[in-house]
Amino acid sequence: MEAVRNALDFSDFPRLDLTIAGLFAIALILFPVFPHSAFAMSTMIQFLMFALYGMGWNTIGGYGGQVDLGKAQYVGIGAYTTAIMLIRWDIPFWVSMPIGVVFSVTWSFIIGYPLFRLKGHYFAIATIATSLVLKDIFEVWDFVGAARGLEISPIKYHPPDFLRLIFKEDIYYFYVILGIFFIGILYVNWFRKSRLGFQLRSIKDNEDVARSLGINVHWAKIKTYAIATAFVSVVGSFHACYIKNIEPEDTMSLDISILIALMAMLGGAGSLWGPIIGAGILIPLKSYLKAWLGAQAGLVGIDLIIYAVIIMLISAYEPRGIWGIIEKIRRRKRA
Amino acid sequence: MPLLEVHHLSKSFGGLVANDDISFEMEKGELVGVIGPNGAGKTTFFNCISGHHAVTSGQIVFNGEDITSLRAHEVARRGLGRTFQVYVAAGDLTVQENVMVGCFMRTASRSRAKSRATDILKDLNIRDLSGYLVSELPVAAQKQVTMATAIGAGPKLLLLDEVAAGLNPNEIDIIMASIRHVHDDMGITVMLIEHVMELVMKVTHRLIVLDYGKKIAEGEPEDIARDQRVIKAYLGERYVKEHGAG
User: Fold this and answer.
1) Interacting residues of A174 by C-beta distance below 8 A, sequence separation 6+
2) Complex-level ipTM
3) Interval B193-222: pLDDT, tens
4) What is the pTM of this model?
5) Which helix (H) or strand (E) holds A321?
6) Which phi and psi (to 5°) does residue B19 adopt?
7) A75: closest CA of chain B, how far (Å)
8) Which end of chain A is more exposed for a tag (fewer CB within 10 A), N or C?
9) Distance, in angstroms, between B146 CA and closest chain A CA?
10) Which residues contact A45 (CB under 8 A, 6 or more apart)?
11) What tens digit of pLDDT does each residue of A25-53 get?
């Protein structure tokens, strides 16, 4: 009961924040009502998906300070589980999505156990490695379509199919992911106030102190890593139904892992709103850059340069990102 | 039954013997000090007891249970708390949240952890610091917060590693009052490492002295202050020869 109350309780935020968040939520709900282009709609859906990826990353990476650059492997596990189950056995999304979460979490335990023996940069590098290895396996594994990937052909179904999540119009996808997005916010809001959330923040502070307070550091990290994984896997499953054409390259590449971490860091690692702010900046930027500049041959890859600049600016000036800057200004005003 | 028994504890790092065959017992309700020159192995001694270091040989029994091979968090959960000499608070936890982390060891409920943390802060007279980040505070206040956090976990025995280091005389008085309060009123058994002799002499019941990893003396503070071996460890052999003992 207390957990539910904590998830719904946002009262520790200033009223200004809550007003902005409330208006933003209403704007999101009403967005499809207003005239919009198909491009804007797909950018919006991408934004919600990446905000969720970022929120998942934020539990272990932000609150726990464990920089994870391998989140894409769980996008892949989620997406492939849903796609394979739908294509081969006609299993609907709402069944395959939780199964995907089980697979992802199981995998996260298997690799998390040795991975969290490592610290700092070594941990980050190891997460990249596991993600890339999994991608390489999927690229040669015939059962999952190897490098060609899988295609969900919508002709076989009768959209709107709410069970299988096959729709013609993006508006349905928008509301499904928006619902998941709101649930995700409540979940992180619970997490940051839970015992596990406090333990993770203590671990980020100082692991020896955390141990002296009875915290099993290794296990707390693995548990939180599993939570982060579950988030990413759910959205990965959604990705399969939404994009319908999945390949190892666009579900599990390093770019996606880095983008997920970068968004959360830009917006503010270790804060509830950070990943949403980060996704709100980077996803439109990415979409529009691709649309405007990507067409010009010489400018392909310019988005990577922009990411690199952002990483450098964050690490040099404010490791806690945009939200860190806002909090700093507020503290100064109060003092 | 003693609360803490240490039997023939040794700890070496490669070739360096940091603790050499230390044996020691402590009853519930005592307030014991560990002193010794720099590098005598005091912090290593604490790290072995609290499970932060695996011991090389020997046995540690806490509250009747052999805790020698337990890991730090398991030792902590059995009621053996500690603070650290160098505390780097890099994170974004406020004072109250810090103390809550300690309280969360005994409860999963946030509201219970929060009210307990508030009580402890009130009890140690630092409630007005609640909303600050630990990194924003002066050293003296940080030390009090680390004590409060350790107390949050509800220890039977609390190891304090140089809580008075780097403080001015006023602050030392405040810390001394806090230590007495923790021991006398909260009923927590305390063992402390300290270089500030004024504090050690005033608050402890018994002292053990380490030098080069060995226990060289043990006894009441007044006796220790006159002990030849202790004076030699601190001031050198020549001083003892020239001035005699006492």
Assistant:
1) A31, A32, A41, A44, A45, A48
2) 0.90
3) 998 888 898 899 999 999 999 999 899 988
4) 0.90
5) helix A321-334
6) -130, 130
7) 30
8) N
9) 9
10) A170, A173, A174, A177, A242
11) 999 999 988 888 888 999 999 999 999 99
Q: Which two tokens stand for residue A74?
A: 């769980």
Which chain B residues are within 8 Å of A214, Cβ to Cβ?
73, 76-77, 105, 153
Q: Total domain count for chain A?
A: 1
What percentage of chain B's residues is helix, strand, coil (to nearest 5)?
40, 25, 35
Cα–Cα dist B135/A124, whole Å = 26
Counting as low any pLDDT under 70, the low residues of chain A are 294-301, 335
Q: Do B108 and A195 touch (CB under 8 A)?
A: yes
B73 vs A: CB within 8 A: yes
Burial class of residue A208 in the structure, from the number of CB atoms within 10 Å of its CB (0-12 exposed, 13-18 middle, 19+ buried): middle
Closest-CA residue to A282 (of A94, A50, A124, A120): A50
Neighbouring residues of B67: CB distance < 8 A, sequence distance ≥ 6: B51, B60, B61, B74, B75, B78, B80
Strand order across the B206-211 sheet = B80-82, B157-161, B189-193, B31-35, B206-211, B214-219
Q: How many angstroms separate the first and last alpha carbons of chain A? A: 37
Chain B residue at shortest CA distance from A2:
B109
d(CA B155, CA A213): 10
Domains and CATH numbers, chain B: 4-84+155-243 (3.40.50.300)
**Other beta carbons less than 10 A from residue A334's beta carbon:** 7
A99: how many CB neighbours lie within 10 A of its CB?
16
A36 touches chain B (CB under 8 A): no
Omega before A160 cis (within 30°)?
yes
> In which residue are the tokens 């004590």 written?
B147
Nearest-CA neighbor of B51 among B108, B85, B9? B9
* Contact assignment for B104 to A2 by CB distance below 8 Å: no
Q: Which one-letter DSSP state was computed for residue A161?
A: B
Nearest to B135 by CA among B87, B85, B84: B87
Q: Do A211 and B87 touch (CB under 8 A)?
A: no
